[in-house]
């Protein structure tokens, strides 16, 4: 059984490698041996663009022509006679290449005249110019009218001897038959990708369209001016841009064209990164060679891998995954087999996603700005995957750990033992007197024989709130002492430090509860015996709540709180790494004093104190039994305020103690304690990333809607981790709640909604903690009146705005890119400037909706809070 985990990791590693190999192995297709009739020739390099007036040199043109000639090309097609491209004609003679020369016809009439003049001169002087094309899709773009184009064609025909045509999309020749009267031959572009055609139907589609033109114009020779398939970019309908599909299409086309003696130009010789702005993500990837002049595939080979580095990726992800699985198996030998299988699969999936994400951008043409964004996305993805691994580890141990070594239960006390004196401290500020009196009444009923109660009221401005408490303590007797301190610094920590100074000299323990807690009579009797172990510094019982039954809002909050104390604290307690809470906690007095007292600089003074005691080497004890119950916040604002304080306080602590949490720093904390303190707060940092991602997603969506020529959809691989983290967060909570928290399904759903409703405020708190030096203490209000219905929106105004904005852009993108996605050369002749992928648009819209769910949950919880009916349906 000890060896079984190691066999499992070998098995999972082998299966992973086999799956990846099967997925990446390209399908076989027909190899090509022979010449190529022609290719479109545009010699721009990765850093060059005609739009930026950066053109290739003579040397670069010559190098490109030599590459083209070397693979058996006989003709090249040039689209313009200016901007230096005409130099290609002279250079092409060296390699025996004929030229089909084009003049670019656009909206600029002066430029058109220059193109025509140069075309005529070159056609009459260069012997390797065998035919000419006046315009390239000029009617399709709407740059000129048919009459204007016909006039340009006539001018050229009158002055040269070569055959003359113009290149247009298929529907132009079908819908405008009069155009054919002005040309010597038809030049048509047949690009099945833009027709959303699957790769299986691509060749039949091209041949069918060719046959239609041949039947329509039986007396006109036909030149297929552009035919090809992109090797990368977005999926468009059924058309998948991939290297394997490009190789398959071109080899099949070359074979069919030779059989039927079809004249053609493959689009194109070299990838052109500059075309991305005008043709979308597939624009740069139509070349036989990439932008670095490396052949994408061998025409004579029966295979072409979509992912050229897949073997390296498979090996890396398999080996790294197996190494991490091995380390996990050696470090954690107390799991059931199901636990190893689950976590090994998570490890392998996480490593695979990271390796895939790292290599995928290397297959694309990305500028400095894009590369910077990708690096940020990679780092963010690493952080999110780390959170997934941490949550999965907690999930694995809690469900499949064989044995728990540190399980503590309430103790039965012998009457013959010693009862060390306990000083119970109750700090309060502007609390309703009746609320505190109820707390004191229950303290008076404790069955522990040796205790005192100190009520410390700090800075309550209204005497009517604190004087009744002063009188009530006198009524309860000498055990109860009341202090009103004003003015007093340090908030709750300051009040508790005052209490330490006032504690009876013979008290050995200090217990702290919140002013709204009612405790069971056996609280101290059941927990004080744990201090018989001199290594124990503090004993913690869970926070729990009362009076939530019958109120849907409070029911949701109650069970959300219960999750941490029944799940997270159980897990941390196994390694002596619990979070100390400022209520239901008992502390050894001399340890409290030795560690420096309550930290008045921190708004989470309880957690910070617990860490300091652990640094001194003291142990903690967590007894998962509810000895006391407080009240949950009455409003969504109060709920958010409390969680903001906890999250902000966590960052305060990390900013002060981050060096103590480093792996090799001998700070007094064990490695396990460091692990739990870091990983326990990391999901809150994930909430801050969620906020950042949401804002970036909104800005990116604005670009996609209003500036589509400059923005494209992020690679889906970078969206997966965001979706996976959200889905696993929900599944993690629901499954662990079912196993460890005693609530029904509806209550689990309610707790999940309450938890994710805090995503925005926690994210804000973490960012505020990182970038601001200090924050005032934010008290959690108790006993507040229900707010008006309108405040349901006001209490969640930021979240509501985020939700509406994200849903609005999701709808716009779905409509603009999915419902109304363009096709190349549709029957109405609509202009195609950017052909986005409908599938990627759908993914992005779904991402926006999923990202918005925490904001929607916040609004929903806020509305439930103010809903007139108090009866809960979450029983």
Care to count the β-strands? 18
Class derived from helix and strand content: alpha/beta
Oligomer: single chain
| Average pLDDT score | 90
Shape: elongated
Helical segment tally?
A: 28
Radius of gyration: 37 Å
Notes on the protein architecture:
- By secondary structure, the protein is an alpha/beta fold.
- It is elongated, with a radius of gyration of 37 Å.
- It is about 50% helix and about 10% strand.
Question: Concise description?
Answer:
The chain is of the alpha/beta class and 875 residues long. The chain has 28 helices and 18 strands. It has an 8-stranded parallel sheet.
Write the layout of secondary structure elements.
Blueprint: H1 4-24, E1 36-40, H2 58-70, E2 73-78, H3 87-94, E3 98-103, H4 109-125, E4 129-136, H5 138-141, H6 146-157, E5 164-169, H7 170-175, E6 186-190, H8 199-216, E7 222-227, H9 243-260, E8 263-266, H10 276-279, H11 310-331, H12 337-359, H13 368-400, E9 421-428, H14 433-444, E10 451-458, H15 463-476, E11 480-485, H16 491-502, E12 507-514, E13 518-519, H17 523-527, E14 536-540, E15 545-546, H18 552-573, E16 585-588, H19 589-594, H20 605-615, E17 619-622, E18 628-631, H21 636-657, H22 671-706, H23 716-740, H24 745-756, H25 759-771, H26 791-794, H27 797-819, H28 838-866
Parallel strand pairs: 1-2, 2-3, 3-4, 4-5, 5-6, 6-7, 7-8, 9-10, 9-12, 10-11, 14-17, 15-18
Antiparallel strand pairs: 12-16, 13-18, 14-16
Main attributes of the structure:
875 residues; eight-stranded parallel sheet; 28 helices; seven-stranded mixed sheet; alpha/beta; elongated
